[in-house]
Amino acid sequence: MLTGPGVAAWVCWLSALGAVALAFAGAERAGAFMALPAMQAATLLLACAVGFCGARAATRRRFDSALLHLGCACVMAGWLAGRYAVRTATPDNPAAGSMAMIDGDVSDKLWEGAYLTNYVGRIPFSVKLEKFIVERYERNADDRDAGREGPVREYRSRVTVSEPGASPYVANVRVNHPVRVRDYHIYQMSWGQSQDLYGRPVTYTVLQFIRDPGLPAVYAGFCMLLGGILLFAVRVFRLKAPRDEEEPS
Amino acid sequence: MMLKMTLQGGLIYLTLTLFLATGVALRGGNRTVGRGFWFTGFVVAVMSVAWRGIHTGHPPMQNLFEFFLCMAAALWPLSQWSRWRNGLDTDLQDALLGAVILFPAGFVFGEEVRRLPPALQSPLFIPHVASYVAGYVLFARAALMALPLMRPSNAAARVRQTEAAVRQAAVAGFALLTLGLLLGSVWGKICWGHYWQWDPKEMWSLATWLVYAGYFHYRLRNGVRAPGTLAALLWLGLLFVVLTLTWINVSRMFSGMHNYA
């Protein structure tokens, strides 16, 4: 009774209210709130309850419901695994961080904070920025009227990755094209212009490194959700006569 | 707000006029004329999509403007489906919905192909947005079709028939909403590094998803015993959709990662 669809409807609507409340709080505060141990415990509880419903639906041969619920539970479990990796990260095994580089820099140190001033730790390979490249669209009439350059079309960091025990190789890190090295994804996060010690202008790039062991579980959950929703839709479209209506379980 | 002084614009405005004329004729009780306008509007909408494809030389599914054109052309077949499959006459509501969809295509979106910033250059861009838009259109149809359920009725067979059609529209919309959410999540991981950022727009989309998930659970628990409540739930979902599309996009209270959208 406690895990039937009647209760589940209210759980959905209350969660919707919670989501709206977090939308008002803004991304930063919402993320910090959900990182609280109490919220993660609550998510774990919810994942267990939803997973139980999915398993029960599977034993009743309701495979659409089973896939949907197990998919949701899987996504939540994957998220919790990612949070666990963040909580247990050490300077020898960081979970996330960034490095700002100019052409020729070599580094394996990650930093965080608005100005990348807080040391996070070292990744198990080193990265050398060969060249940072910004490409722009051709100027059109709008840009000429506004007296500016064309908007940025692409920016990318050409890096050489040196893993211990392997020969170094070159990779291009671009927006929407992260590079995977060991357990880390490398993202082209941002770029900017600054000055060096002698006041000469330099262009720097910011690369972000993220390790998320929960990601496979999250993606598996996504696949289950999609499969479940397709089965569910097929079932709803097949119902024709009133006698085919399902009974409330 | 701008007028399009091109053949494309002319086709859009002609479709818009025909859809509105459909509404006027059907409202005035003239069925034959109304259906004639509705079908002609569909033909012109298809011509508009076809011309866009011929004119730009690519399949017309590559930006929001083109996608709205496609949605407007998809409504006539959807209304035919509802008549054939569910025995419902949805011409009036679909014609008016079509006018609402074509309004941004005619007066808000530009025709020119935008120069996309790097973050938006992804094969996931169009599927992500298109799933949402198509899902929202189906949710709007579900809510409109559910309107008769709000009136007390003792024709149980009629209520069942309408409710089945409504639920079919809602489940199709829900599948597309889920797809949009998941594609956005995968894209977020590829582009921003995280599949979930607690961004206000993400949270409103999740809330919309949860409202419809609640509707399906409620329907499973109670059947069609309270059709008025089912209709009210679908209108609540549509309220979330409308808020996501308007308030969340416009208000500075919800600034976040989705600001370029």
Write the layout of secondary structure elements.
The complex is a heterodimer of chains A (about 250) and B (about 260).
Chain A: H1 5-25, H2 27-34, H3 37-59, H4 63-87, E1 96-101, E2 106-112, E3 118-136, H5 141-146, E4 152-162, E5 169-174, E6 179-181, E7 184-195, E8 201-211, H6 215-238
Antiparallel strand pairs in A: 1-8, 2-3, 3-4, 4-5, 6-7, 7-8
Chain B: H1 7-27, H2 31-56, H3 64-86, H4 91-107, H5 125-145, H6 156-191, H7 200-222, H8 227-245, H9 247-250
Helix pairs in contact in B: 1-2, 1-4, 2-3, 3-4, 3-5, 4-5, 5-6, 5-8, 6-7, 7-8
Description of the molecule:
The complex is a heterodimer of chains A (249) and B (261). Chain A is 43% helix and 30% strand. With 249 residues, chain A is an alpha+beta fold. Chain A folds into 2 domains: 5-89 and 214-244, no CATH class; 96-211, no CATH class. In chain A, strands 1-8-7-6 form a 4-stranded antiparallel sheet, with helices on one face. Chain A has a 4-stranded antiparallel sheet with strand order 2-3-4-5, with no helix packed on it. Chain A is elongated. Chain B is mostly helical and 261 residues long. The longest helix of chain B has 36 residues, at 156-191. At the A-B interface, helix 1, helix 2, strand 4, strand 7 and helix 6 of A face helix 6 and helix 7 of B.
Beta-strand content bin of chain A: 25-35%
Which value, in Å, is the CA radius of gyration of chain B?
Answer: 19 Å
Share of β-strand residues of chain B: under 5%
Q: Give the biggest beta sheet of chain A.
A: 4 strands, antiparallel
Q: How many domain modules of chain B?
A: 2
Strand order of the largest sheet of chain A: 1-8-7-6
Give the CA-CA distance, first to last residue of chain B. 18 Å
Q: Please bin the fraction of helical residues of chain A.
A: 40-55%
Oligomer: heterodimer
Number of helices of chain B: 9
End-to-end CA span of chain A:
9 Å
Separate helix tally of chain A: 6
Poorly predicted tracts of residues of chain A: 241-249
Biggest interface found: A-B, 60 and 55 residues
- Number of discrete domains of chain A: 2
Structural class of chain B: mainly alpha
User: Average pLDDT across residues of chain B?
Assistant: 88
